[in-house]
Amino acid sequence: MSILDRDALAASPLADLHALASELSIDGYRRLRKADLIDAILARQGGAPATDEPGADAEPSADAEPSADAESGGDGEGAGEEDRPAARRRRGRRGGRGRAGARDEENGDADAQAEPEEEEPASEGAEDSEEAAEPAAGRRRAAKEPAEEELVEGEVELLPNGSGFLRVNPPEPSEDDVYVSAAQVKRCELVPGDRIAGPRRPPRRSERFASLIRIDTINGRPADEVADSTRFDDLPAAFPSERFRLGSEDPTIKAIEWLTPFGQGSRVTIVGPARAGKTEALKRLVATLAAHEDVQVSLVLAGVRPEEISDWQEGPVAPAAAVSFAASADSQAQTVERVVDQARRLASRGSHAVVLIDTLTGLQPHAARKLLASARNIAGGGSLTVIATASEPLGGETTVIALDPVLASTGRFPAVNLLGSWTIRADLLVGDAGAEAIARARLEALDQ
Fold this sequence. Notes:
The strands form two sheets. Strands 8, 9, 10, 11, 12, 13, 14, 15 and 16 form a nine-stranded mixed β-sheet that branches. The protein has 17 helices and 16 strands. It has helices at 6-10, 14-23, 34-45, 68-71, 86-94, 98-106, 108-114, 124-144, 182-187, 223-227, 251-259, 278-289, 306-313, 329-348, 365-373, 405-409, 427-447; strands at residues 150-158, 164-167, 178-180, 195-201, 210-212, 217-218, 221-222, 237-238, 267-271, 296-304, 321-324, 352-358, 376-378, 383-390, 399-402, 422-423. The protein has three domains: 6-125, no CATH class; 150-229, CATH 2.40.50.140; 237-447, Rossmann fold, CATH 3.40.50.300.
């Protein structure tokens, strides 16, 4: 590169001076005034300016020492300029003319990280900072190293919202219990009483209990095997063949048992207009089914009156979940779905579950049919029975119990409307003779 004198530099455009300063690795050249920039260029080329007057010749000298003002770029910033990191000096070299050079300088930090830096002696201050940084780096490395996982084992207790707890000393709760997320419960198909094991993490600042990191085993089996087992919806279903023997002297319950029978795995709706006694009939069924020790009975309320929620809580089976009619249709559906999902998991493990719902009337028709369709008798396995109240049949039921509002309002029980009630394949539940007796009773009701 040829050495330029002051006159040539003064006659050059500022953009050319910036390009020249970039080639000479003059730091901060874009912040300098033109006269100061010329002084810095002359000093970096090896010659000192002879005079400050414009047009004066400056004889270049190879032995001349650069002045302090020239080193600093004329503003006192540049003392120790040679000690600056190489990445910043390269930023200037990458700068071009005009706007492209400005963009290169703005992106200099990112570019420097992607390129290997030149090695140069570090100043004493840099050495001190590196020594001070070593303990911090060690702490960061230690933080990244995974701590030894603390394994816990206990029994699952599920909550109405779908999450649960690992009880280390079941059934009593304790401060050592571990929270299990709803996602883990659903993914691993957990049911109450499952014994699970896995690592835990300590509670965070806003948490009271430790949380389960993952589930390693379920009832002594690897969790992956349980999670990868056949989906509930893919399990083979058969028509109900095991009738629920209610054994009650209540006239309504006796009429249901013998004229509209249902069994394990049935899809049952109790239908009728308002004030037909649907909720009352469901209450009597709950009291009867609660006495069966071989079934898991759950009750869920959706879209009912607030007073009815309080009334149900005093019954033999407390609601597993409840929302009033003020809740949206989606919220009601989600409330019922959580309880039905838990019953599905029980049935897939070979247990017999019954879910009673009051009511499906406020749900979207598709959501209501989907929940009712969960009921099934699993061939060679467990069963899930769903009994729900509704204003009218939804479709897909195996048993419909229709109530007569006139009989109910006048206190004449049983208030079952035989002509509107039916059971599919009743012969599987009560035999051929029982099915014929049901048919005769309906014919008699038709003649009346």
